[in-house]
Design brief:
Shape: globular
Strand order of the largest sheet: 1-2-3
Strand content: 15-25%
Number of domains: 2
Order of helices and strands: EEEHHHHH
Radius of gyration: 26 Å
Number of helices: 5
Structural class: alpha+beta
Helix content: 55-70%
Oligomer: single chain
Largest sheet: 3 strands, antiparallel
CATH architecture of the largest domain: Up-down Bundle
Length: 185
């Protein structure tokens, strides 16, 4: 027993008028239950859909490229200061942390990860660094260093950073490399 439901829809939009016929067929499966099967797509609708998908993909890639470019600008600004040996160790470590945090935020944003602690800045920053460490698959030592640097930047305690400025710079560079590597760059 084969039941058929055909519908004709027509109207107009900003691109002109359109009409579409949709049909849904119901037939019994092996157990006797009715199963709905969608209509088959024509090759024309698939081609149109592929073009739309390509355009959407191109927009996403373009947005991601822009985000990576912006990350590089912010990262490089902080790292230029962090690498200056004539500056105080605390200033250099703080700038390395800021570069690291920019990378962590980028990883979370580009991967579409939602952090639920957005209303509390400290909890949010901790969650961002923790999530980025997992996504980038940092070693346990690197994850611990990133968390320690994050905690120091959030609280200012102790007065001296938990990592040397040089180690903090290397950690930030490692996060950036892992971030770009995970996106095939």
């Amino acid at each position: 027993m084969l039941n058929s439901l055909d519908a004709l829809t027509s109207g107009s939009n900003s691109c002109g008028s359109y009409s579409m016929t949709a049909s849904c067929r119901q037939s019994p499966d092996q157990t006797g239950s009715l199963v709905s099967t969608p209509p088959s797509r024509s090759s024309t609708s698939l081609k149109q859909n592929d073009v739309g998908t390509r355009q959407w993909t191109n927009m996403l890639v373009s947005a991601e490229q822009h985000a990576v470019e912006q990350l590089r600008v912010h990262f490089d600004e902080f790292m230029d200061v962090a690498k200056r040996v004539d500056l105080d160790e605390v200033v250099r470590a703080r700038c390395a942390y800021e570069a690291l945090y920019e990378v962590a935020k980028s990883v979370v944003n580009l991967d579409g990860i939602r952090i639920s602690a957005e209303s509390q800045a400290d909890m949010f920053a901790r969650a961002v660094v923790d999530r980025a460490a997992r996504v980038l698959r940092l070693t346990p030592e690197e994850a611990h260093q990133a968390q320690a640097l994050n905690e120091w930047a959030l609280t200012g305690l102790p007065a001296d950073p938990p990592l040397s400025a040089e180690t903090a710079v290397q950690l930030a560079e490692r996060l950036l490399a892992a971030s770009l590597g995970s996106r095939g760059r």
